[in-house]
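Table S4 entry, Prolyl endopeptidase.
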Amino acid sequence: MKVGASRVGLQNLLQGLSFSVKYYSKHNHLQTACLYSKTKPPKCHILDCSGSTCTHQTLPPGSILPWRFFSCKKGTKIPSKRKQNTSIITSELLYEDLLKSEQENWNDISARYKAMTKRIKEKLEELHKCMFNSGSPRIRFGENVYFEENGCIFLSKADDDEENADILFSMEDLGFSDSFVQRIRISPDQRHMAIGLKSENSEEATCVVMKIGHFPVLEKVIPSVFSFEWATNDVLYYTSLKNLRCQNVFMTTFTHQKHTELVYTEQDARFFVDINCTKDRRFLTINSNSKTTSEVWLVDCRHPFKLPALVQARTKGLIYHIEHRNDELYILTTYGEPAEYKLMKAPVTSSGMENWQLVCALEEKTKLVDLEMFSDHCIMFLKNAGHLYLNVISFVSHSVQSIKLPTWACEFELESHPEHTTSTCYFQLTSPVHPPKRFAYSFKENNLIEQAVQEVPIITNCHTTRLLAKSKDETLVPITVFHNMNSKELHRKPLLVHVYGAYGIDLNMSFKEEKLMLIEEGWILAYCHVRGGGELGLSWHKDGCHRNKLKGLHDLKACIVLLHQLGFSQPKYTAVAAASAGGVLAGALCNTDPELIRAVVLRAPFVDVLNTMMKTHLPLTIEEQEEWGNPLADEKCMEYIKSYCPYQNIKTQCYPSVFITAYENDQRVPVSGVLRYVQKLRKAALDHGSRTSKKGNCIPNIILDIQANGSHCDPSWEDSLDEVARHLAFLNKELEVCNLQHHTKSCQ
C-alpha cells in the first residue's frame, strides 16, 4: 500500500512521517536488490517501481540549502546593510579557512589509515563479488517486463529470456549520463514512460517523459520534481520540490493540445505534499502530511480534469493513508484508541471519519512496516518484539491469518506488485548479516513459499540474540545482538553499537557486506532500538521526541551497560556508529558517559539542535518543530534542548575518539555546523589533556573527513566503499583490533 505518503512510500511513512524528502539508501529493498544485479550497477542504482520515491532512513531536522555562514549567535543585533555585507564576507572567509584547514588536517592524518583502509576495501570487494546476482527490480505489465540496468531501460517478454531484452533507451542518449534512475512510472496503455533522474549531489530530481515505441521519443523534461503518477494514458500529475519543500501539485497532458496547470497548493509550511496511485489505479491520492497530521485529496482517474475531492479534513493528531477496492476506501489510520495504526474502511461517497469502520486492529507494541493491497486480500507486514510476521486479511472470507517469519529475519524488503489482481505477493527478508532471501505468499494455496535461489556464501555460525535493557524509568528497551558462535572470551571482542532514535524510524537492519565481514572477524554488533525510533509502534516514537528526547539517551546508556554486564565486550573495545539524527544521541552520550565507549563514527551527524531550531528562515525548521520543539516560542523547550544538545554540552573532559564524515554539498546537515562542533570538541579534549598528567592519559583523535562530492542521501555501494573502509580502519586502530584475519569464506 504505497499510499498516503508525505514524502515517502508507506513503509517509511509508517515510521513516523519523518522525512522532509525521502531517499532510498542501502536499507531500501530496491537498492539492495540492485546490489546483486547481474551487471555492476551505476551510481546509486535505484529503480523505484513500488510507489515510493528516492530516501534513508534518516534525515535530520533544520536542513538548509548550502549555507556559507559559520557564526550566527542568538541575540546579535542586525547591523546596517553595509555592516551586514561585511559580516557576511567575514563569515564566509572564516568558513572557507576552517574548511581548508580541516581538509589539510585530514590529508595529513589519512596516511596513518591508508594501509589498513586498502586491506579492508579489498576484503569488502571480494565479499561483494561473492554475492548472488538476483537482478535489478522488474516492473511487469501484462506480458511485458520493464527493468533498468547500467543506466539503460530494457523491455522483455514475461516468458522470454532477459538476454533477449530490447534496449528502449539509455540515460546517456538522453543527456543524463551523470544521473541515476530513481523512479519509473508507465502509463496504463504503456505508450508513455515517466522516469525520475537524480544526481548524487542534489536532492531535486528531473522527470523525463518518453513516448515508447520502435523509436522512443523524448516528449518532456520537467525539472525539480519529487513524485509523479499517471492518471490516464496521457495525463501525468507531479509535485515540485524547492528548497527541500514540496507544496505544489501540477497536471500536464500529452494530448494534441498539451498544457500544464497547477492543481493543488499547500499553504502550511509544516506539511509536505506528494502523490500516489491506488493499487487498482482508480484514484490518485494527493497526500499532505506533517509529522503528526494528514489530509488526503482524491483525483478520479476516470475524470482526471475534475477538481480533487477531500477525503477527511485535517484534524490535529490524525494520520491516515488511503487505498481503494470495490468502491470502498481502505484507510490506514491512527483514528481512535489506542493511537496506533489500524485498518478501517468507508464508502467513497461518504469518506468522512464518522463513517470509518474498523477492519483490523494491531496488537499492543506492534510496528506496522507496510501494507500491500490486492483485489481480494491485503497483507500487513509487521514487527513485534523484534520478530517479523504477516497478517493476511481475506476480504472474501473476512478472516485474518497470522504468519510468523524466520527468526533470523530483521527487515522486510518489499517488491513491486503493479497488478493488484495477482495471486502471489513477493517480498524479501534480510538482516545485517543475511543477504536478502526471497519469499512468496500464495493467496490460492494460503501458504508461505521460500523461493529456491542459488546459494550465496553467507555465514552460518552467526548467533542472533534479542535482549531487553531496563532504562532509567524502568522501560524495557530492545537490543538485537549478532556475534560469531565460534568466538571465545566475548568480553575481549570489539563491540560496535548502532543507534538512531528519531522520527519514528527503525534502525537500518538490512544487509551490508561490512557487517558480515565484521562478524567473520570476531566483532559483536549491537542494534539498540531506543525510544524516538519506531520499533514498537507510534507510541515508542512519541515517548522519545520533543520533551522526551532524554529518554532515548537514557535508553542508549542502559543498553551499553547491559551489554557489558552480560560479557559482550568492555568499554575500551566498544564503539558507537550513528548517522544523521542518530548523531544527537551518540554525541550526547559522549558528553554524559564518555567512559562507556572508546570510539565513535558519525556520518553527516546532526549535532547542533538548538542553533538549527532557532533559525526559522531555514526551509525545514518549522516542519521539524513537531520532532524537536520550538525553542523560540517556548523558553522551557529551549532549556530542554540545551540539556541534551551535543554541541551545547561539550565540556573539558576525557572524550572518546571521533571520526566524522561530512559532505560539502549536504543540504540537511550543513558542513558549517559540523565544523563548529569539531572545533569545540577538539578544543575541549586538548584542554583536558593539557590539564591532566595521569599516566597513560592520551588525547583522543577528533577527525573530520569532508567529502567534496556526495550529499545527505546514502551513496551507492561503489561510492561508499572508500568511506566504509576508512571508518573501519579508524575503529580497528582505536580499539586496537590487530591482525585482521583473511576471509574463511570463498566464492563458490
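Residues 460-737 form a domain with the Rossmann fold fold (CATH 3.40.50.1820).
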